[in-house]
Amino acid sequence: MSRRDRLAARKEGLLDTTAFLKVADKFIDLANKENRNVQATQLHMALLWASARYSAFVAKNIMHVDQHEEFVDTMTKEYVEMLRQHLGDSTIDPAE
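Request: output the structure for the sequence above.
Response:
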């Protein structure tokens, strides 16, 4: 995809890899700020709840998903794959 195509896609609200990661980083930054006052274990559950809530909204109101269980299965598989990738990422290992 050319630079012109990427910019046009972004204007339409579509995200290329770089833009996708920048949006995700905004959520991570917010979580890190909240983590100053909220325990990480509590915060991560709040983020999961928010993600599920927003995903349900998009499924029902934007995508008009009729087969809820099929959507749940697809999203579950996506989450499991993302979680495995991040658990294998040494850049987020604890400092020694």
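The chain has a mean pLDDT of 91.
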